[in-house]
Amino acid sequence: MNITANEVKTKGVSAFDAMFDKFNEVLINVRGKNKYCVIPFEEYEEYRAYQLDKAHKEVMRDLKEGKYHTSVKQHVDSIKQSIKDD
Questions:
Q1: Which residue from 5, 38, 46, 67 has the highest number of Cβ atoms inside 10 Å of its Cβ?
Q2: Rounded to whole angstroms, how far apart are CA atoms 28 and 4?
Q3: 24 and 50 belong to one structural domain
Q4: How far apart are CA 3 and CA 8, in angstroms?
Q5: What percent of the chain lies above the pLDDT cut of 70?
């Protein structure tokens, strides 16, 4: 469901209450373009937990595969090489 930024400005957060009865997300439209997505906090917490779990799995995979640096110098050298490659 879409709502304009002006409606949010005039109605405040109460504009979302009725919308969340029917929809699980509200898109805020600014000058004709969708700019923000508002979701209930419980859904945000679930999404954030998913992101953190995914990041943890990626780190554990990198550790298992030896894809990490053991010194700051290695890390800085890696960044410099990446910049040169671009």
A1: 38
A2: 5
A3: no
A4: 7
A5: 100
Residue 25 sits in the same domain as residue 9: yes
* 50-58 CB contacts, 8 Å cutoff, 24+ apart: none
Beta bridge partners of 33: 30
Structural domain of 73: 42-85
Half-sphere exposure of 41 (CA within 13 A, CB side): 1
Q: Indicate whether 33 and 54 sit together in one domain.
A: no
Do residues 76 and 68 touch, judged by C-beta distance below 8 A? Answer: no
Q: Are residues 30 and 10 in the same domain?
A: yes
Opening angle at CA 16, ends 11 and 6, nearest 5: 40
Residue-wise pLDDT tens digits, 12-41: 988 888 899 899 999 999 999 999 999 999
What's the Cα-to-Cα distance from 43 to each of 2, 24, 55, rounded to whole Å?
A: 18, 9, 18
Number of folded domains that form the chain: 2
